[in-house]
Amino acid sequence: MSQPEASAPDRRLLWLCLLTLGWSVLVLQAGGFTTSIRAGMAFLDWPLSNGSINPPGWLTEIDKFAEHSHRLAATVLGLLCIAIAVAHGFRESRRAIRLAAYTLVGLVVLQGLLGGLRVLLDQLNIGGDGNFKAVAFAVGHAVNAQLTLALLAIIALTHTTAWHQAGRTAPRSLFLTGVAAAALTLSVIVIGAVMRQGHFTLWAASAHDGLFIPSIGTGVAWWVNLLHRGGALLAGTAVLFFAVQLARQGFPLLRWATLVVLIFLQVLLGILSIQLPLNPHVRTIHLVVGAALFSSLCAAVMLARRSTKESAA
């Protein structure tokens, strides 16, 4: 049976990761707000905005402010992720963690390219009757952002005391339960990205129509909304079950209680999004909390994996 790593957590790398995580929340909020107010094409060029890093009107016009502040914040995030990779190259002895840090940079570069292609291939730039290419890259951009934050959270976790002191005491079923919950949550994220980027969002027409079954719309839009709401209920149940199992296995209160709190907050925000369809801030916060939930869940799953008993073989 292998033993937990004896080396102490690297606090400098941990704080660098936490700083980057905090900044990434601002980037996600800016991107989510841009989508919520449909300002993604405030500028038709990329990577510059109207050929400048300080385009006229971006501090006074809300759509330009949303899009350009998102681009500026994302640039800073990219620099922070490069700093993480360089710092890990010099200070981190574990090969797998170094590779994870390098992969993080790759995901950030991919994120920028997906965002750029979403702009450059929009029908406002290339013409045509449909906008499938731009929407497809926008969905990829949204989902990749979630994966990037999750990887960053996992890297940060590897520099904590909880990671270094983890013992192999939990059954393998705990890890598998977490994987299932994470997979379901990711599927809801993908459907939600399709719903937001494709502007398929449908709201209940009145209080008598309920919150689960969309009361308006037909065809693809109706099904996308139903799948997102139904999938959210299923994924939420799976996450809560995983949290209960973490508690039963003696994991720290903060580790599993965070998942419980985020699930209930996310459900509340989802309901508010239906009841306040004209409020872009509610939908943006719903997106940010969803990212916090998925990242926290992925980190908990990796900690469960590290705590899983090895087989007798």
Structural overview:
The chain is mainly α. The protein has 2 domains: 1-165; 169-313. The protein has 10 helices and no strands. The protein has helices at 11-36, 62-91, 95-120, 123-126, 132-157, 161-164, 172-197, 219-248, 253-275, 280-306. Helix 1 runs antiparallel to helix 2 and helix 3 (95-120) packs antiparallel against helix 5. The model has no long low-confidence stretch (mean pLDDT 89).
Relevant terms:
single chain, 313 residues, mainly alpha, 2 domains, 10 helices
What structural class do the secondary elements suggest? mainly alpha
Q: Tally the structural domains.
A: 2
H-E string: HHHHHHHHHH
Euclidean distance between termini CA atoms: 10 Å
Poorly predicted ranges (pLDDT <50, ≥5 residues)?
none
β-sheet strand percentage: under 5%
Number of strands: 0
The biggest beta sheet reads: none
Q: Which descriptor suits the 3D outline?
A: globular
Query: How helical, in percent, are the residues?
Result: over 70%
Number of contiguous helices: 10
The gyration radius over C-alpha positions equals: 21 Å
Please, what is the oligomeric state? single chain
Write the layout of secondary structure elements.
Elements: H1 11-36, H2 62-91, H3 95-120, H4 123-126, H5 132-157, H6 161-164, H7 172-197, H8 219-248, H9 253-275, H10 280-306
Summarize the structure.
With 313 residues, the protein is mostly helical. It has ten helices and no strands. It has two domains: 1-165; 169-313.
